[in-house]
Design brief:
This protein is of the alpha+beta class. The chain has 18 helices and 31 strands. The protein is globular. Bound molecules: dioxothiomolybdenum(VI) ion.
Amino acid sequence: MAGEKAREPRGDYYRQDQRIPETPAPGEQPAPWGETQVVGRARPRVDAYERVSGSARYPSDLVLPGMLYGAILRCPHPHARVRKCDTDAAVALPGVHAVISDATAEARLRWPYGPDSSSRLFDPHCRFEGECVAAVAAESPHQARDALAAIAVDYQVLDHVSDERRALDAGAAAVHSGGNRVEPTAVHERGDVAAGFAAADVVLEQSYRCACELHTPLELHGCVARWDGDRLTLWESSQGVFAIQQRVAEVLGLPLSRVRVINHYMGGGFGSKLQAGKYTLIAALLARRSARPVKLFLSRAETYLAAGNRPPTSMRLKAGVTADGRLTALEFRCTGASGAYPAGGAALVDWQIRDLYTCPNVRTEADDVYIHAGPARPFRAPGHPQGSWALEQMLDALAREIDMDPVALRLANVPDKSQAREGQPPYSSTGLARCLRDGAEAFGWQQARERSAEQKRSGDKRRGVGMAACLWVAGSGGPPSTVVLKLFADGSVNLNMGASDIGTGTKTVMALVVAEELGVRSDLIQIEHADTGSTQYATPSGGSKTVPTEAPAVRAAAVAVKRELLRMGAAQLGVAVDQLTLRDGRLAAAGDGPSAAVAELDELSRRGVVVGVGHRGPNPEGLAVCPFGAQFCEVEVDVRTGEVRLLRLTAAQESGRVMDRLTFDSQVVGGVTMGIGFGLTEERVLDGPTGKLCNRNWHDYKLPTALDVPARVQSLPIDLPDPRANTTGAKGLGEPVTIPTAAAIANAIFDATGVRPTESPVMPPRLLALLAAARREG
Ligand code: MOS
């Protein structure tokens, strides 16, 4: 497996290309939690009022005095050369303060699309529809749009390739001079696949394809940029302010200390806001040129063109199983499209195949190709839902062939170690079997299967049930993280951390951690976060690692504060430190001994504040830390219209300790909702002849709405605190939830109709075609 280690397990894509500082000293870590009092209950968000009242200010809400509005002129062709770009008329328009293009000084800056790939900021060779050609800043958004319209561009339109299945064909238009392969085929191999198939009683082989899914955060991508002399401040809608700071400083050649990035609220990122965009830099450049603050947010259409996607993926899977349900071999090929620049087009697609079930003989091949379309970005559990779409449908088909319950087939192959990682380390904990068993019971799997088997295959509305399981490659968290906690003389607390709360409830969970250790009410805890100028370094909130990364550091900081309080209390009350406990803001000696409220500590009122610093300790050596899940659902298919109605779904998720039941449930419902979109409704449509994006708004690009998400989405937490993972026992949750949903739905569709929807999303016309073909054959 030479060369394997460097690119494996790739679960840390959320910090790719970044310089990550070391944690100064992991320091003494408290012992893992046992039972908790506050953590694990259902507590509302600490910022619920701000969010629902509209007083929470997101970057897109920000208005600064003298602020201008930026806008970007984008190439309307998937592949073209700019012969001439005439900005004279735009410059002369009223209200226009800055126009930049490949003809202005800013042109010399290069935008790094990847470690070995970059383009000019306004590259005259445009490789995707939506690439930046010029930009303006004006007094109003309308004047900015008028200025864009006044720029005359002469394009030479070139041949394009927009289908990943055609990208490597002889004669396909070349995206880059070296051809359309992003990198050599990535191969994973263990055991002997041929021998494994020979040992199987049943071997099946099937092709699958997943359409490209577009990033649709509610808040659009963009920022407000302001210069104070040679110091730049950016309010950017992002998942990690330090990542934005690093990229912008690097491209502008500024010291990191002169780039301040702030983001106290953000309206969703899902992986598309782990990094800065050209738009970030363009806002900064327009602000510098005009000496005014500039607000630059993309439109929805621009977001769809240029702010990332889950790549389209073509797959083929061959699988062997014995009659008693042991997997003997898996062989998998996939091709995914990065888009016009390297973006991990096939990254992690094979991870479910490699690691979810015990299988001694596995071979996977992954090809990442260029096409003339906007580059991909990480997208909630990158690669995993695609791999799950193939693997979990294959498991369903195998179970039917050997006449075994699909839950039983999965239970027969539950792994206790990560087979795809170097050295095959055991999992620190795994709740996969619990997810399968408890999920099946909560859903009523047996009864539902029997009902569905009895149902006659007649009538227009057919019901069926399906299930799928998953693991997520990452979700352990890890260093670095440094957290500073200040406890004031009145007992209130200020928590300082660099991480962003990307809408998942990070701040709420951290407040609960402080409350657990210090007994402080959460309304007395103020959180300062996500500001490179005033908070501690943190990696971006991605990879479902924010809670397992930050919570142990917060806990360590709280424990440091608590140690100080106990020392002060012991001195004041004249008892030994180990006789004292801190509960509900009071230090009390054992039995009927003396006690004092924290606010009554003399030393605290003299000093005014106690400061505790906490660091995230290292992860356990030789263990893989991963979350698991299993989902069960029931659908009703109208075989006359091809409509699929999801009636109910149970999501059993094991992510270590449940930190807050409400944020847990909201992650589960959110992840399932995105899975429904992936499986049933969302698809980027590129026009064949022109290669242009056909569906660039919320009318034509079909997001699941409230009508598509059943009221009966049951969140079933498998609460298994993992003391080996970290001192809070929590693992990541946000991404694993979205992995198996679509495959579970596909299996339920098969159960209902007898046709297997191998292509996602299962839109009515696609399903009708399958049903018609089945009728012709049957
Ligand atoms: Mo996630 S795709 O790491 O935001």
